[in-house]
Amino acid sequence: MKKSKLARLIAAICCFAMLLTACSSNQTPAETGGDGSTTADSEKKVLTYAIGAETTDLSTLYMNNSLYCTSKLVYENLVDFDNGEIVPGLAESWEYNDDQTELTFHLRQGVTFHNGEPFNAEAVKTNLEHKQSNPSFYSLKGITDIQEIEVVDEYTITLHYDHPFYAYLQDFCWPDVNPMSAPEYIIPGDFQTISGVAGTGPYIYDEYVAGEYTRFVRNEDYWGETPYWDEIIVKYIPDSTSRLQALQTGEIDMIYGGTLLTYEEYDQALAMDGIDGQMAEKDTRVQVITTNATSPYLSDIRVRQAIAYAIDKEEMSVAISNGYEPPADIPATRDTPYADVELETTYDYDPDMANQLLDEAGWLMNESTGIREKDGEPLSLLLTLETGSTSVSMPTAEVIKSQLAEVGIDITIYGTEQMQWYADYLEGKFDLTLWHCQYAFASPHCWFTPMDSMVPQTPSLPGIEGSDEFLATIKELTNMSDDQEVRDTYTYLFNYDVGNVLDIPLTYQKDMLVYNTDKIAGYTFTGTPCFFDILSLEPAE
């Protein structure tokens, strides 16, 4: 029975993938070659790879997930996160004052934005003031808690806070929201659009052809290591099957990242002649179900517990990732600082316990429909997800739907674009929703600190035993700097979150790439695997 059930799940996911397949019409102009380069450019070293969204929103505030493989071509951070440590970026060094209320960055000198503007303390101040005015930055205390931005001299800037917090520096590591952009292109009060693309990175945004490709050219004035490739062409190929075909025919040299490759497609690519691939050793993020305890169906902890017991993470791992994604037990990757906690309560797969809890909660099985009912109402839940991560989220949602049906819970899957999904989340328009937790540098503080102000968690928590202490502890966390105090606090927070089934960790996600061995010899994944670093790519020559 187990094997046949798993086979049905895999078959269902494969069928869904086939339904998404469509023909791609990504042709470059007649006067260019298939990679967007002209005949005169034939001697140039050109790397071509696929993206799933147009580069028109290559913004440092709201960037489509499938553009993460382009962001570090152009943009750079003050500091970066690699192998569990924060390392210099555009800031050569930094220090706190004695009470950790002042953070001073010493900036690299002689760095210029792609549009010719100088990178200096005034440019950093302009960037930080713009980011700080963005209401969506509420979880990044390193930005929102700034009381004053002091330009000490041309290459020194000090950020003043009214209280210490151990994670201020981590908040500057986000490659998609905290890089430095040329001040000329920043639009005050506008957080979704930009008037131009210019950072300090190794490549310059050179040519955009709508619906086809974007060309990046090497920044000959780059302050760091000289990149190998003269040009990078990123081709807009929104369909996953067409991306694989383009790789096989040589139209592109590489596909990077879990938002552009499923694990099945990864295995398919490895079977192609001349194609190799790599998977990151470190986990990227965690897939998590967040439960809405304000829902009349889920206010009873027994229903939330039943959902957790009904999910077979081992089977899910095989069904959605061919076993590549290991089951998760907490909403953070295990290389995350302070994530080495022991859980007091776990919900290992146990459908008998799930059925027992649902019976105790008064949800009885209707044998004719296979759906549990209470007071004439079916136990039908809305599971929402963000469609920009369809290749990742939708297969997971289909498995959840199938597994919960086994215990009589009916699931309706609803997917929408990123901002609408997020707006629906804040308004509580869901019973269950799929999250992809933050990266190692951003967790666990960015996971917990918003919970004292975010809807729907905050309204739902007062109905849960011990929630006052939980919310008060989160507030106290944002004033902590002592290592042991922080460690003890996270042990408590993780146990409360998972124990009360506010969140159900599912699997640890992996990032990967597949490439043409004639062009590429290998890749070294960074400490934040989903953000492609061109300087870590080894050419075949």
Automatic annotation (TrEMBL):
The lineage of its organism: Bacteria, Bacillati, Bacillota, Clostridia, Lachnospirales. It comes from Anaerotignum lactatifermentans. SUPFAM superfamilies: Periplasmic binding protein-like II (SSF53850). The keyword Signal applies. Keywords: Signal, Transport. Residues 1-30 form the signal peptide. PROSITE patterns: PROKAR_LIPOPROTEIN (PS51257). The keyword Signal applies. InterPro entries: Peptide/Ni-bd, SBP_5, SBP_5_dom. Its main location: other. Pfam families: SBP_bac_5. It is found in: Cell envelope. This is Nickel ABC transporter substrate-binding protein. GO terms for cellular component: ATP-binding cassette (ABC) transporter complex; cell envelope; periplasmic space. GO terms for biological process: peptide transport. Belongs to the bacterial solute-binding protein 5 family. GO terms for molecular function: peptide transmembrane transporter activity. Residues 85-450 form the Solute-binding protein family domain.
